[in-house]
Amino acid sequence: MTTPLRIGFIPLVDAAALIVAADKGFAAAEGLDITLVREVSWSNVRDKLNIGLFDAAHLLAPVAIASSLGLGHVKVPIVAPFNLGLNGNAITVSPSLHADIMKEIDGDRFDPMATALALSRVVAKRRKSGAEPLIFGMTFPFSTHNYQLRFWMAAGGVDPDEDVRLVVLPPPYMVDSLANGHVDAFCVGAPWNSIAVDLGIGHILHFVSDILVAAAEKVLAIRQNWAEKSPDMVAALVRAHLRAAEFIEQPDNRAEAAAILAQPERIGVDAEVIQRTLDGRLKISPDGAKRESERYLLVGRQGVARPDPAQAAWLYAQMVRWGQAAMKPDALKTAMDVFRPGLYDAAVGHHPAPADAPQAIGAFAGPPFDPDDIRGHLAAFKIGHWKP
Amino acid sequence: MAAESSPKIVIVDESPIRAAILEEGLREAGYTSVVHISEMHSLLARIYAVDPDIIVIDLENPSRDVLEQMFQVSRAVRRPIAMFVDQSDAASIEASVEAGVSAYIVDGLKKERIKPILDLCVSRFNAFARLQDELDRAKHALEERKVIDRAKGILMKLKGLTEDEAYVLLRSTAMREKKKIGEIAQSILTASELLK
């Protein structure tokens, strides 16, 4: 007997575990018959999950939290029993902004503090000359991309709400917008950064893992009431996803995984571009320069598939910092409760974190993150809406 | 409805036909102030230029996420907008998502005034979906008709049949094989391609 499930996703490489679980038979082995539904907006994914048109979804981690808190939309409690990806985004800038930053930079070009300070000098010069503020594209108000861009530039003294403009752009429009000069830079997931570099219209300035060592990106999201009613189904989903993630992380399987993801009805871009992302070996500039990182995108390795509530707390703290949520102890608790390591353990057993497991967050600026003291943590940052 | 009290409605839709159907419906219902935006570049700026009370967008449009930005307090956003949200409105939201449409409302507009507009959008979107479906079926029928005509031509030429005899042969073969006439006709075309 198989159980039919409809699961929504956005064509991005961090949907890898979900797509491979469905297309490589890992879900079928758990008795699940998954129909994947490709969507065009995060709003659609959220709404269709909320009203039950989807049983589960590939979702931005902050959207799962916002939905559970009822921020900007109907309040529907969501839980995440599986972390689909850690990191995986990059900041890409136009060739002219790249040249401006490199002219101003004092230090290593991969050091986010050096680039953020350089950006603040570029912004000051532009203001002096009467130029329009720089425009940065990101994917959604409640997105890691939004928070990563803000965290980075604010560390260098750039106020994201005063000194530049942050605008939401659907990922498939990012590259065109950069090419047409409608934005000067963007933060987005794979494959869009690589596509901009391949077209010669962008430079990857940072992997977001430069900014935060380990940041929860997308989760497998399900409605809390469905999770409570169908614990066996949740466990089967988690197991299928973990098997898929383990498959993807075997270097020998990467080419096959990339080919599965490249299918037109899945992500629909060249398999080679997808494999670059999985391997963490990216071309970062149109002249062909490459950069490699162990931490570019983690799909299940180093124990990262197990949801970590500290990640949810950090995301909630960003919502407070940037004026999207009020600072309330019960809201923090609700946010942390979205990430469910218990559901993960119930499915695959509890294993101690591997020795190489990354420390949650690990931001390049500010004090280490402490979920028990968000007030104290946020008080350390000068720029932001929230004031102690 | 008096013109001065008619809320200003923006329709964001890349399909000109569907937008026209919706606009017509709204005008018939007395909503005279309707603007259609089909160009997605600088969408927020275009919307602010119209300064609407209600924004209607189809769910196939990736720019829906751009509208979500209007909930935020930021420099890029001049006037906060709320979605038609209220825990009690779950049924309305379900109906609109299923119909493929979503509405964003400027704060302050009364709920009684929004509901009929949203209901109208839902029914017009459903009507458009039915129309699209009929159109697809008609197109399919036309295609099938062409295939059958070509298959008849081949049979007439190869077997020296009249048009009626060729059709009878197709139909009786379809019945015997428990297939559609279109499928038999298609296999004749495929076979004749192979044997060329």
What are the defining features of this structure?
heterodimer, A: 388 residues, alpha/beta, D-Maltodextrin-Binding Protein, domain 2, 6-stranded mixed sheet, 17 helices, 15 strands, globular, B: 196 residues, 2 domains, 5 strands, 11% strand, elongated
Q: Count the strands of chain A?
A: 15
Estimate nothing, just give the exact number of structural domains of chain A: 2
Counted by DSSP, the helix tally of chain B is 7
What is the overall pLDDT average of chain B? Answer: 85
The shape of chain A is: globular
CATH architecture of the largest domain in chain B: 3-Layer(aba) Sandwich
- Cα distance spanning the termini of chain B: 69 Å
Give the overall silhouette of chain B. Answer: elongated
Question: Largest sheet of chain B, order of strands side by side?
Answer: 2-1-3-5-4
Poorly predicted runs of 5 or more residues of chain A: none
Strand order of the largest sheet of chain A: 2-1-3-11-4-14
The CATH topology assignment of the largest domain in chain B is D-Maltodextrin-Binding Protein, domain 2
Percentage of β-strand residues of chain A = 15-25%
CATH class of the largest domain in chain B: Alpha Beta
Fourth-tier CATH superfamily name of the largest domain in chain A: Periplasmic binding protein-like II
Radius of gyration over C-alpha positions of chain B, nearest whole angstrom: 26 Å
The CATH architecture of the largest domain in chain A: 3-Layer(aba) Sandwich
Question: What's the overall average pLDDT of chain A, rounded?
Answer: 95
Q: Helix coverage percent of residues of chain B?
A: 55-70%
